[in-house]
Write a structure and sequence with these properties.
The protein is mostly helical. It has 15 helices and no strands. The longest helix has 35 residues, at 207-241. The radius of gyration is 21 Å and the shape is globular. Residues 183-195 have low confidence and may be disordered.
Length: 342
């Protein structure tokens, strides 16, 4: 019989938040190897968090409201009607929806099981990890409203590109029979199945919904705080230790190369959607090209581990490969456009 007990060491390790642990270890390393830099790093981090606080507050309250009202369930209406209409609405809603990556898994599983075309699902998949109310708020506060709006438009555009490409190639060997034999549809958020209820906009009149609002607000506040703290610590160290000429050489200047490299390194270098924003701000300060910044954030957002798992869990590897390929091409194209107009 298998041993189902859990050792105290494993139990303690599972309860430690890895983001806070990494932040503490980085600061400890700075204190040991470069003590004079510890104070400036902490000062930079605290000041950056303070300047971002209004955007964080707006973000967590917006997410709490959407969760408490059940507004997420209205997204299901996008997946009805003609296929082209579904793709357009899926891309638009994916670009603004408040779903986290683990919530996407049961949501998409239900859609695929109901016979929703893969093209509409692909549009939602590609756009969803890139922008939501919280992401827009953090991006606007750090990189400016122009960049936040451009990234939102790029997210929708990427969804449209992926959706219509999938529709055009639906009968090809790549996109035929997309589902795994037994899709893994579990999520980590404990969310209910989609389509379960209509939104209740005056949520404060219901005690259960007030509890949902409180829990969602606090959970997202702690989530943003830990990742942004880590990001600002890394930003401070990047500005101090990484020579600006290095960034300018590889990711700066005009032309296609920095944009291509931005999309190429976006996936392995991506830490977290929210944490990436301060890091990109630091890279821009060091000489990163505008187009490279856009391609980096788009490619990294779509291919980061949580978003990728949501796709890998449900479809066959060739569909997953197509997802990554569409993400790269779309991100590279968006970077070229942003470089030309920024």
């Amino acid at each position: 019989m298998a041993d189902t007990t859990q050792s105290p060491r494993n139990s303690i390790w599972s309860r430690i938040d890895k983001a806070w642990l990494v932040t503490a270890l980085i600061l400890l390393a700075v204190a040991v190897f470069d003590p004079p830099q510890l104070s400036p790093t902490l000062t930079f981090t605290i000041q950056a968090l303070a300047s971002t606080a209004p955007y964080i507050l707006f973000a967590v309250l917006a997410i709490g409201y959407l969760k408490a009202t059940g507004a997420e369930n209205t997204i299901s209406k996008a997946f009805q009607g003609r296929e082209s209409r579904m793709i357009i609405l899926a891309a638009l809603l994916g670009g603004i929806s408040p779903f986290c990556s683990c919530e996407v898994i049961p949501f998409i599983a239900a859609l695929l099981a109901a016979g929703t075309p893969l093209s509409a699902v692909m549009a939602f998949w590609l756009a969803s990890p890139l922008m939501d109310p919280a992401m827009f708020s953090i991006t606007a506060g750090t990189l400016g409203f122009d960049f936040a709006i451009a990234k939102t438009l790029a997210a929708v555009g990427l969804g449209l590109f992926g959706g219509f490409t999938t529709m055009a190639l639906a009968k090809s060997a790549v996109f035929a029979d997309p589902l795994r034999e037994t899709p893994q549809v579990g999520g980590c958020c404990g969310v209910k199945a989609p389509f379960s209820e209509k939104p209740v906009w005056a949520f404060w009149q219901d005690a259960t919904r007030r509890t949902v609002f409180k829990n969602a607000t606090l959970e997202n506040a702690f989530f943003l705080l830990k990742w942004l703290t880590l990001a600002y610590v890394l930003e401070a160290l990047m500005i101090h230790y990484v020579p600006a000429e290095w960034v300018a050489t590889f990711l700066g200047g005009e032309g296609v190369q920095p944009i291509f490299l931005g999309a190429l390194v976006g996936a392995p270098a991506y830490l977290n959607g929210y944490a990436a924003v301060p890091l990109v701000a630091a890279l821009l300060q060091q000489g990163m090209a505008n187009g490279a910044a856009m391609s980096f954030m788009l490619a990294g957002g779509v291919s980061c581990i949580p978003a990728a798992i949501a796709v890998w869990a449900l479809v066959k590897p060739r569909i997953f490969a197509a997802y990554l390929g569409l993400a790269f091409v779309g991100s590279f194209t968006a970077g070229l456009i942003w470089q030309a107009v920024a």
